[in-house]
Design brief:
About 45% of the residues lie in helices and about 15% in strands. Helix 4 links the parallel strand 4 (about 85) and strand 5 (about 135-140). The protein has about 250 residues and is an alpha/beta fold. It is built from 8 helices and 7 strands; from the N terminus they run E-H-E-H-E-H-E-H-E-H-H-E-H-H-E. The chain has a single domain (about 10-240), classed as Rossmann fold (3-Layer(aba) Sandwich). The chain is globular. The protein has a 7-stranded parallel β-sheet with strand order 3-2-1-4-5-6-7, with helices on both faces. The structure holds NADP nicotinamide-adenine-dinucleotide phosphate. NADP nicotinamide-adenine-dinucleotide phosphate binds near residues 15, 17, 39 and 90.
């Protein structure tokens, strides 16, 4: 029996990258995982298999409040409750301010910040029923704390998630539900593909005190810790998983 046995966990953006690693690790720790993503079910099959026997896939675009509501309802009906929410779905559309397009700003904010709001609002009443086992983990970023040239919308969305984390930590604390953020640095996924090639990679690695780019598993381990009973007295915090890149 794993440490999360009996708990149902909803992970958004779970078809690949960091979300996939989170789903796999929570599943290996005994949780039954509801993997949510915009991709067709066929494209999520590998992630679903890795998340263990009790896992299920739900196609859901977090930008749509109605789709999220319907998905949470389906998860609770099919899986018997909801104790853990990991708001991981996210996109980055980079570009310097003077060339930034309104639609790119809106899309990044809609997925990264409004999406997390939709999921948290829809899941909250079920998480409150889980009482002291209720957990929300928001995947923010080093960029939300430190800023990053060419990432104005992404930085705004990730800094916004930290405000959401602290506010809901206060709102939900009286029922024992904790709300925390994880702030990854550079993690090797599709999102960072173009930044981690050739000479750029060498420069990047040289700037990271621990001397390597992070893996999705590094982030998943932090999420697992925050979801477990051992983190029951930690709320409103940001756990940095960045190899020492930003302290
Ligand atoms: P990724 O490999 O691109 O995975 C993101 C997943 O989210 C994809 O499966 C994507 O589906 C899905 N998604 C996108 N829009 C969605 C929507 N509207 N509704 C539901 N799912 C949606 O990225 P990642 O690197 O694993 O990033 C995961 C999270 O970590 C993001 O929030 C990101 O900002 C954060 N983060 C990443 C890094 C890093 O270095 N990689 C660092 C700090 C923070 P599609 O394939 O269809 O787009």
């Amino acid at each position: 029996m794993g440490t999360l046995a009996g708990r149902v966990a909803m992970v958004t953006g779970a078809a690949q990258g960091i979300g996939r690693a989170i789903a796999a690790l929570l599943g290996a720790s005994g949780a039954r995982v509801a993997l949510c993503d915009v991709v067709e079910p066929a494209a999520a099959q590998d992630a679903l298999a890795e998340a263990g026997e009790g896992a299920a896939y739900f196609r859901c675009d977090v930008r749509s409040a109605s789709e999220v509501e319907a998905t949470v309802k389906a998860i609770v009906e099919r899986m018997g409750g909801l104790a853990i929410l990991v708001n991981n779905a996210g996109i980055a559309i980079d570009g310097l301010l003077l060339r930034a397009k309104d639609e790119d700003w809106q899309r990044v904010l809609e997925v990264n910040l409004t999406g997390a709001f939709h999921c948290t609002r829809a899941a909250a009443k079920h998480l409150l029923k889980a009482r002291a086992q209720g957990r929300i983990v928001n995947i923010s970023s080093v960029v939300g704390e430190a800023g990053s040239t060419g990432q104005v919308a992404y930085a705004a969305s990730k800094a916004g998630l930290l405000g959401v984390t602290k506010t809901l930590a206060q709102e939900l604390a009286s029922r024992g539900v904790t709300v925390n953020a994880v702030c990854p640095g550079f993690i090797e996924t599709r999102m960072t593909e173009e930044h981690v090639q050739g000479e750029r990679r060498e420069r990047l690695v040289a700037s990271i005190p621990l001397g390597r780019i992070g893996s999705p598993r590094d982030v998943a381990e932090a999420v697992l810790f925050l979801c477990g009973d051992g983190a029951g007295y930690i709320t409103g915090q940001c756990l940095r998983v960045n190899g020492g890149l930003y302290m």
